[in-house]
Prior knowledge:
This protein is an alpha+beta fold. The protein contains 3 helices and 7 strands, in the order βββαββββαα.
Amino acid sequence: xxxxxxxxxxxxxxxxxxxxxxxxxxxxxxxxxxxxxxxxxxxxxxxxxxxxxxxxxxxxxxxxxxxxxxxxxxxxxxxxxxxxxxxxxxxxxxxxxxxxxxxxxxxxxxxxxxxxxxxxxxxxxxxxxxxxxxxxxxxxxxxxxxxxx
Length: 149
């Protein structure tokens, strides 16, 4: 399958399109035929070699994807081949024709919501949940959410 890959930490010269084996889902995972993928600043940090971002080299970036379920691993319920989903791919791999994600980090796209719009949610959601946990926000607290748009 085709994928965008960082060969090593560095600048844009480390980025290339490559052919790599298609990943298979393991237990608790789904494989997704990627139609849309988010590229975020964490991917830039991974390419630069910042500690804690790339899981090894070479590295396929992309932490959020949208597409159709292509295969379902053992012990996965609630997803079927052909379901339209978005997912957070913790270890990258989203800038490829097929990506694997933990089923618990995937969600079906609701009817009426465009897949390309839904694809931008997973990393933002993970960021918001992480910040809420780090700040010890409770249901009784008030917070201000700002953003452009």
